[in-house]
Design goal:
Blueprint (H helix, E strand, L loop, with lengths): L6 E5 L3 H13 L6 E6 L3 E3 L4 H5 L9 E3 H4 L3 E12 L4 E7 L5 E8 L2 E4 L3 E3 L7 H4 L6 H20 L7 H7 L1 E5 L3 H17 L12 E6 L9 H14 L3 E4 L3 E5 L2 E4 L4 E3 L2 E4 L3 E3 L1 H4 L5 E2 L2 E3 L12 E3 L4 E2 L24 H18 L16 E3 L5 E3 L6 E2 L1 H14 L3 H16 L17 H4 L9
Parallel strand pairs: 1-2, 1-8, 2-5, 8-20, 10-11, 10-16, 11-12, 19-21
Antiparallel strand pairs: 3-4, 5-6, 6-7, 9-17, 13-14, 14-15, 18-19, 22-23, 23-24
Helix pairs in contact: 1-10, 5-6
C-alpha cells in the first residue's frame, strides 16, 4: 500500500467489531496504524436487552453505545460495504445520509480487513413470513413491537360490543411468537408481564383476554440451558398462561391468522419471529469458503487463502477448541464451531484485535479458545433462569445474576448507569403505556429492518 502507515478496516460495529477495535486501540501505538470502522449506524447495539426495550423497561438509547465516544482513535464511516477487491485490497462503501438513504460511494484501501458483519434473523422460505413477521434484532423492530401491541389494545378496546366483532377482537389480542430459544422466550415472557400489568387501563380489555402462543420445532424451551432449567422456564410460562407448542412451526402467515404445520390455525395480527439467526448476507456474496453459511476461518481467526483478511462473530465458523467434541485436524471428524452468541462475539473481537496487531508486529497471535461462562434468560417480573459457570439458578437470584452480567457486559459506564437507573425506576414506578415512536409496519419487518442494506453488487 502507498499509505505511510498500514490501514486496518473493520466491517461491522457489533460486539466483535467493537471489541476488536478496542483491543487494537489498546495494543497499537498511536502512529502504528489507521483504524477505520464501516457500520450502518454510529452505535453498538447491546442486543441482549432488546426485550427490555420492547417491554418498556429500558429506554432505546440507553442500549446504544456511542462508537465515536468509546473508540477515540477510530474513524467511523456510516455505510455498508458493497464490494471487496482482494487484488487491490480495497472495499467500496455505500455511504448513508441522516435518514439512512444512500448519498454516495467511496473506496477505502486496507492492509488488514476484519469481516464481522454479524447476523440477521433466519426467516426460512415460508409463505407470508417476509411480508408479516417482525423480529427483535434492531431498535426499530423493538420499538415498533411495543407500540404495535399498544395499538392492538387501543383498537380492540374501540370495537363495539357484540359477537360480530369477536373474531377481530381475538386477532388483535393474540400474539404468536416463533422460536423458543433466547429471543422468542425472553420477548414473549417480558411482553406478557408488561401487558399484564397495564391491560386494565383499557375499559374493555382484561389481562386474561390477551392470548400468547410460543411455538418451536424443538422439543424443549431454552434447550441451551439444559432440561432442568428448561422445565423451570416452561413452568413459569405456563403459570403466566402462555400457550407453548413444541414440535411445530409456521406453515403460512396470512392476514389475520397463522397456519401451523400440525394443521391448526391461530387467529392473530401479531407474528414475532425469533427462530434463530443466519450470517449477514454479505458473507454469501464473497468469493470465500463457507461452512453452513458462515465464513471459514482458522483457529487464529484468519481467513484461509485471503491475504490480510480476518473474520469472527456470528458471520464466521470459528473452530471451538474448548468443545469436548473437538478432535485434531486430519481425523476426518466434523469439527465443532462456536455458537453465534454475544459472549463469543465479544471475546472473538478481543482475539481479533490481538491477532491483527500481531500481524502488524505488535504482540503474539494466539488461537481463539473460550469456554462459555454461562447463560442467562430474563423472563420478566421476578422470573429468570441462569447457568453461570454451570451453576443452575432460577427466580430472583437468577434475575440478579442476569442483570449483573448485562451491566458488566455493557462496554460503557454511561450506558450502565442509564440502564441500571431504568431498571430501578421500573421497579418503583408504574409501567408506561404510551406510543412514542410511530414506526410504520413496513419499516419493522424482518426483511426490511435487517436485510435492506446493500451487499456486494458484483
Amino acid at each position: 500500500m502507498s499509505q505511510s502507515r498500514p490501514v486496518v478496516v473493520v466491517v461491522g460495529g457489533g460486539f466483535a467489531g467493537f471489541h476488536a477495535l478496542r483491543k487494537l486501540e489498546k495494543t497499537l501505538p498511536p502512529d502504528a496504524a489507521e483504524l477505520v470502522l464501516v457500520n450502518p449506524s454510529d452505535y453498538l447495539l447491546y442486543s441482549p436487552l432488546l426485550p427490555d426495550v420492547s417491554a418498556g423497561v429500558v429506554e432505546p438509547r440507553h442500549i446504544a453505545v456511542s462508537l465515536r465516544q468509546q473508540l477515540r482513535r477510530t474513524r467511523v464511516v456510516l455505510g455498508s460495504v458493497t464490494d471487496i477487491d482482494a487484488q487491490t485490497k480495497t472495499v467500496t462503501v455505500r455511504t448513508t445520509d441522516d435518514g439512512g438513504a444512500t448519498d454516495g460511494t467511496l473506496t477505502q484501501p486496507y492492509d488488514r480487513l476484519v469481516l464481522v458483519p454479524g447476523s440477521v434473523t433466519r426467516q426460512f422460505d415460508i409463505p407470508g413470513v417476509a411480508e408479516r413477521a417482525h423480529g427483535v434484532k434492531t431498535l426499530v423492530e423493538a420499538q415498533f413491537l411495543r407500540d404495535h401491541l399498544l395499538r392492538q389494545l387501543d383498537r380492540a378496546d374501540a370495537l363495539p360490543e357484540g359477537p360480530e366483532h369477536d373474531a377481530e377482537r381475538r386477532e388483535r389480542l393474540t400474539v404468536v411468537a416463533v422460536g423458543a430459544g433466547y429471543t422468542g422466550t425472553e420477548i414473549v415472557a417480558q411482553l406478557q408481564y408488561w401487558l399484564g400489568t397495564i391491560a386494565s387501563r383499557w375499559a374493555r380489555v382484561r389481562p386474561q383476554d390477551i392470548q400468547w402462543v410460543l411455538i418451536d420445532l424443538a422439543e424443549s424451551v431454552l434447550p441451551e440451558l439444559g432440561p432442568d432449567l428448561g422445565k423451570v422456564a416452561m413452568d413459569a410460562l405456563h403459570r403466566r398462561g402462555i400457550d407453548v407448542r413444541l414440535g411445530v412451526t409456521v406453515k403460512e402467515a396470512r392476514e389475520g391468522e397463522t397456519l401451523l404445520t400440525d394443521g391448526s390455525t391461530i387467529p392473530s395480527r401479531t407474528l414475532i419471529w425469533g427462530a434463530g439467526v443466519a450470517a449477514s448476507p454479505l458473507v454469501g456474496a464473497l468469493d470465500l469458503p463457507l461452512q453452513k453459511g458462515r465464513l471459514v476461518v482458522d483457529a487464529d481467526l484468519a481467513v484461509p487463502g485471503a491475504d490480510g483478511v480476518f473474520a469472527g462473530g456470528d458471520a464466521a465458523a470459528v473452530p471451538d477448541l474448548a468443545s469436548p467434541d473437538w478432535s485434531p485436524a486430519g481425523t476426518g471428524q466434523p469439527q465443532p464451531v462456536t455458537p453465534p452468541t454475544a459472549q463469543h462475539a465479544q471475546r472473538q473481537g478481543t482475539a481479533l484485535g490481538r491477532n491483527v496487531a500481531a500481524s502488524l508486529g505488535f504482540g503474539r497471535a494466539k488461537p481463539y479458545k473460550h469456554r462459555d461462562l454461562g447463560l442467562v434468560a430474563d423472563l420478566g417480573g421476578r422470573d429468570a433462569v441462569a447457568k453461570p459457570l454451570g451453576i443452575k439458578l432460577h427466580g430472583p437470584l437468577a434475575k440478579l445474576v442476569a442483570r449483573g452480567y448485562h451491566l458488566y457486559a455493557l462496554p460503557s459506564m454511561n450506558n450502565r448507569v442509564r440502564v441500571g437507573t431504568d431498571w430501578l425506576l421500573a421497579a418503583l414506578l408504574p409501567a408506561q403505556s404510551v406510543e412514542v415512536s410511530r414506526i410504520s409496519p413496513d419499516q419493522a419487518l424482518v426483511s426490511t429492518a435487517q436485510q435492506s442494506q446493500p451487499h456486494l453488487t458484483r
